[in-house]
């Protein structure tokens, strides 16, 4: 412990909190965060809630407002039960990506915990929400609360007008497709009329320049023309419907043959909420890592400046180490890689590489090793990466050794796992790439797209599941989900499974069979 | 400066609407759980909260997901101690996939949650197809009347007891020697008198002393409030249950071999409904179980429902036993006597006449209400629908039915048939328990 003479005054003492203390601590932490780490945050709105309200928030996807649905009731029962049994504690805080950034504080927390939570959520998460490119691109922090308010009242009005059961049926079906209801890529922006004219002009010019009368004299091949004609019809149809389309909810919302306008609006609500949460799912490690790194750094700075007492610091450290606890794979407590632990370790590792690199680090990270500007490196990583690219870019051999990571190859046909790589020279790159791959949400969810629909014929909706690495869909839930798609589409729906590498058809399932 | 909002006082139970939707969704399965509870538990036990497993059927949330038993995957795990590349590790469980998969599904079965008393009754009533008015009546909790019971230091402003509060304030003012207005006035008067006199050094000194005294007293008066929060007393009210009479319920059942599981289950629900009705109407409800073959005996609830006994069937023995118990323990002046009898209708030849005699001469005079159900096979129900012929006991009881208005009888094949037996009982509500 530091034994220097402390002259500055403690920010708080004792374990009870009150609003004056909270406010004082927030101001101190905020100014420290801005000057020490260069954070950039939304204004903060802190809300003190009780444990029951925290449970309520759990069940509604962590949002302060949410429409009514039985599945939230079910989730509430599970959460409540786990909590009451003592099997699981509640989170100390919850933070919402909105502007102003809403932070929930639990009333049971001690003052030390409230300070920790303030640094973690109001600074760390807040900075990440405001600066990470995924959130900037895909979520509208300023509008989400009013949108949810609209969604809630709209669905309540629909329930009043059309009855609870029909609304529930639509919501059930839409929820089943939430995973398939997000855009992963932006569409190209619409051209202005001037740009369009210019494009047309360029194309004409090109045609004029490359005109050759010879092509006109070629005789049409008789065998191919019929094939060509059907191909062309198909291609035109696909073009008019913008197929293939991987956002099933979007496709159904726009093109379903049986839905009423209010039903389309409900699908749209579910789709927009799914899209809102999509960045969060892609940035778990980074988001939690960023928040944990921020609270750990700020709390230590405050302690070094004698603004918090040793007792409070010990309490914070105890909670901190609970949060970043990572059991080994054979520990009964193991339940996957802890995003808090991985994120924090990687960010501290970046700081180490930046300030005290080894020869190996210089080899692996020539851009950042030894440059000493760890703050800028981290700010840049927080702004421009998601979990997948962050791991791919920054997971160092030193950290792989520290965690003793290894890779298991699991082939369902074989009776054993094979240890494919371990933490050695040959394994680093493979482990890093496989871990990055596992954080790619887009790649790890089944790839299902609408490929065709014959609107003039039998109106059958045709889906294609591209099978990667032989991963088939689980039969029971696949059939149930197909039934939901049928409800929304109104006519038969069929899905073919096609191998991604060979293109071989692996099977077809239609709603007529299920 | 962040904005702070204290949400702790916001309305709780935000997810109540979701809970109701969930219960509605899982209605059938929950109804089955409650039915099982009624079958396994005691008659008086229905009327409270129940813990039931979270229903699985109809509450699945499907989505496309990978089949655990196909394909090639790679897992990254921390904490390698002994492995090197190329090691083979046998998969646990032999069946492939994860060893814990079976365990998790089992533990999900253990998830249970609490249904409130209202929800339990709703589910139970729905099974019996009770009319809404009756449901409301049965769900009513015992009514209370507030009664004065001393004083309390906290309470609602409307309940302040002024007399008691002022007495406390008076005592405190005396104890703390709060200066009275009269004392102040006296000093002020003295000052005024002195000021009227010609000013001399002595007088000025005297005036200064008096002013100081006046000032001190005034400050003291300000510090010691006239009425302080510690003085305030509130009237305290105790909820007092409305006085109600006692009721005793006799459950009579034939337990000879011909009564199977289904018959007993229906009979039990018949008893539960009557018991619910009685607990609503009377503060204290006793239950007496009498079972009979060719001999009748008073038994406890468990024996009543779960022990079988072989023997013939002589119904009158049960009625005699009931009469004996009434005379011994339940004087008519103090107890409202209700009886519910369930049987499959068999009786020893010639005994039915004796039953009529017992009922007509003795029991019907003592009973508020006597309900008889005959449990028949569902296939027989359309044959026996409304015809007068039937088992010997049925034919005999028919005579009583006409003669005593408080006698009810009915054939039961399904749960929905139970309520009509009690229809008259519920219709006769003489408005005396229309409490808030």
From TrEMBL, chain A:
Superkingdom of origin: Bacteria
Residue span, SpoVR protein-like N-terminal domain: 16-442
Transmembrane stretches, start-end: none
SpoVR-like C-terminal domain ranges (all copies): 446-499
Name this protein carries in UniProt: SpoVR family protein
Native organism: Mesorhizobium jarvisii
Organism placement in taxonomy: Bacteria, Pseudomonadati, Pseudomonadota, Alphaproteobacteria, Hyphomicrobiales
TrEMBL record, chain B:
Stretch list, region Disordered: 53-103
Keywords, ordered alphabetically: Coiled coil
Family stated for the protein in its record: Belongs to the UPF0229 family.
UniProt keyword Methyltransferase present: no
UniProt cross-references to InterPro entries, sorted A to Z: UPF0229 (IPR006698)
HAMAP family for this protein: UPF0229 (MF_01232)
NCBIfam families per UniProt: PRK05325.1-2 (NF003707), PRK05325.1-3 (NF003708)
Record-given protein name: UPF0229 protein D3242_29165
Superkingdom of origin: Bacteria
UniProt keyword Coiled coil present: yes
Coiled coil regions, renumbered to chain: 200-227
Source species of the chain: Mesorhizobium jarvisii
